[in-house]
Amino acid sequence: MSENLQDWREETDAIIDELLSDGSNPEAVYTIEHHFACRDFNRLEKLAVELFKLGFELTDAEEMELDDGSPIFCCDAVSEGALEAERIMDEIGQLLPVCTRFGVDYDGWGTFFEE
């Protein structure tokens, strides 16, 4: 594992531990949203096309404003499945090289508490 992937592993374990410690259902099907950001809309759009080809659902791109007033474009790749670190890490392992290829930042992942 590269150092960057190892960092994501530690964050993934922490997120899962927090959810389960708070009482989230370990047997639920979770919606996992992987977050992406880029200052160049065209690069984000190319990334989205590649991620769609890999089987991810994509949210519409949104334009946001950074603290310095400059625009940044964001979108999410969405998957569903068990809240298992290995599965999520496999997805991150697929996503990071595509991000590098298009010069888009991977900004982590998130999900919601499940009863």
From TrEMBL:
In which compartments does the protein localize? Cytoplasm
Q: Which residues form a coiled coil?
A: none
Describe the protein's quaternary organization and the partners it interacts with: Interacts with the C-terminal region of Rne.
NCBIfam families xref list = PRK11191.1 (NF008393)
Q: Which UniProt keywords apply?
A: Cytoplasm
Boundaries of each Regulator of ribonuclease activity B domain copy?
Answer: 10-111
Q: What is this protein called?
A: Regulator of ribonuclease activity B
Top-level taxon of the source organism: Bacteria
On whether DNA repair is a keyword of this UniProt record, the answer is no
What is the protein's major site of localization? cytoplasm
* Function summary: Globally modulates RNA abundance by binding to RNase E (Rne) and regulating its endonucleolytic activity. Can modulate Rne action in a substrate-dependent manner by altering the composition of the degradosome.
Family classification:
Belongs to the RraB family.
Pfam families the record matches:
RraB
What organism does this protein naturally occur in?
Answer: Pseudaeromonas paramecii
| Name of the coding gene | rraB
InterPro entries for the chain: RraB, RraB-like_sf, RraB_dom
